[in-house]
Description:
The chain is α/β, with parallel strands linked by helices. The chain folds into three domains: 5-166, Rossmann fold (3-Layer(aba) Sandwich); 282-478, no CATH class; 505-703, no CATH class. The chain has 31 helices and eleven strands.
Amino acid sequence: MNGDLKVALVGNPNSGKSTLFNVLTGLNQKIGNFPGVTVEKKIGFVKLSDHRNAQITDLPGTYSIYPKSRDERIVMDVLADKNGPDYPELIVFVADASNLKRNLLLFSQVADLKIPIIIALNMMDIARQSGIEIAIDELAQKLGIQVIPISARKQQGIDRLKEAILNSTSIPLQLPSIEVEAIAPELIHKIQDELNIEHPYVALQLAHQHEDMLFLSDEHKKKIQALSQEFDFHSQKSQASETITRYNFINDVLFDTVKMNSDPKQETYSNRIDKILTHRIFGFAIFFAILFLIFQSIFAWSEYPMSLIEQLFMWLTDMGTQILPPGLLADLLIDGVLAGLSGVIIFIPQIAILFAFISILEDTGYMSRVTFMMDKIMRKVGLSGKSIVPLIGGFACAVPSIMSARNIESWKDRMITIMVTPLIACSARLPVYTLLISLVVPDVKLWGLINMQGIVLMSLYVFSIVSAILVALVMKLVIRARERGYFIMELPVYRIPRWNNVLLTMYRSVKAFVFEAGKVIIAVSIILWVLSSFGPSDRFDKIEAKYSSETIKQQFPQDEIDRLQASEKLENSYAGMLGKSIEPAIQPIGFDWKIGIALITSFAAREVFVGTMATIYSVDGDDTHVESVREKMQSARNPDTGLPVFTTAVAFSLMMFYAFAMQCMSTIAVVYRETKSWKWPAIQFVYMTGLAYLASFIVYNLLK
């Protein structure tokens, strides 16, 4: 949308910035990375009038313009680079009305950059409940800008905010908060002259942060460094002096504009709940009870929609075999594309339920409490409390979770977090777990309420947390510390979840699963169909000659001959040869060559295992009887023993393998990108594969 008004959302963490972004842009948004870094960039579009749209960039939350992490550094990088692609024409500063003093520190810094700015005074409902009264007009007059009271969660004041954005001026009208030039007058003027910088505070920030600013050339960095030394500039002393001056300004602004009653009810309400939910004993019991509810629900609530999807694909397969003329094209569409697609679509209900619960826990403020509680355990194994954020996020996906570890200041804590995060059971493992559990764990309820399959699934997720903690403990002893990390987290007040936000999260998660993982699964399924349907011509010719002989025709009915011929062709296909080549290595952990093929293909993504099984057993199956993937795997027999392939021992051995193995190319790529070295992903791949094989070997031999 070229020509759109470029707007940046800026604010403290937990100020409701992301909520406002979602309200303004809805589904009309896209995710990317800021140029030159792996920090996620969210851009959305909003219609302001019939003739004007706005491009909204949601910048990372920060408490100050002086960054403590890579995410926070992006804010200054974007706002200081006038020639950058993300430089805004307008800043919408999202402020928490219930904690305005803290929010105004960042506002005063951003306002002094002299970019046009308006304040979206969010959480006005919570401020009123907390006994806070804000004189909006007086506040706007003291700051010299528009102040729009809103409640993003309740979508109140949004139309007025859009109108303010539409009618905003291109001239910065904010009044100065402090006398910037007085901090380092000669240095500021010199940097302005040398680098052609218009505004003094931008020049001062270049003096503070030039080493980390991506848009500055090496020549400019050296020039600023030389000037800083020439004028004896001390960054920390300057920051301290500036902060004191800013708070004097903020106190003056708030003196006549904000009044607080003596009874802040909302704070007391949250504190009362915290006494129970963060209790050192009851807090953990409640957390595990919630996990128990989540994994019970994943099986119980998804059973009916999954059954409908399963029946739909069986009907489509049946219709395909009847309508399409026999041949390679029909086999490709039915055994390749359709079988692979079924391995994606059938797990949509479970993915949606999992992410709905995660969204509710985050939206209510409970996830922050879990992070706070787990900090006590994490410190005992040598991790920072901040490591919990990536680890908890690992339940969804390891890739963004590993990227979020950049907020951890301690190098050792960050490296250990990156190394153990892939052990957390991510959503990609969910299709593998639920398929294997449904094969060997009976669908029975204890005391008529507790689903056995849900208990096993929850146990796998708890096992992943324990595994990550134990591996972190080992790495604490192996990796040498460079510095000590600290855990600082603000606990937001408890809120009712926004159901539209929950639905939006479910939609995005399902969309990402279907279109990102789905593309890989279907592509692998088609490749696998080709490898499974073709092989060395001399082998296939011999098989066809064998089963066209009169001797075979007299011994078996035609249906059995077709099944035996398809099975032998699969075994002698290129895929079969690939599986057979690794079978000696995987036999001790209970896997045959067909499972070996799945292990190889699922290296692209763990969930490809399901699509591979669907394709393998479709190619190997009986075309006269349409079955679901689960039914095909249940009926699979070992040709040597006649026993089921997927016994309890094999199924749990597979679950253990996928619990530990680094079966994800994207994770390896992001670890390389975050560590800037192949050393760490190589170590990660080796230790996780070793643990996977050892765990599978132990479980298989104990259960067989």
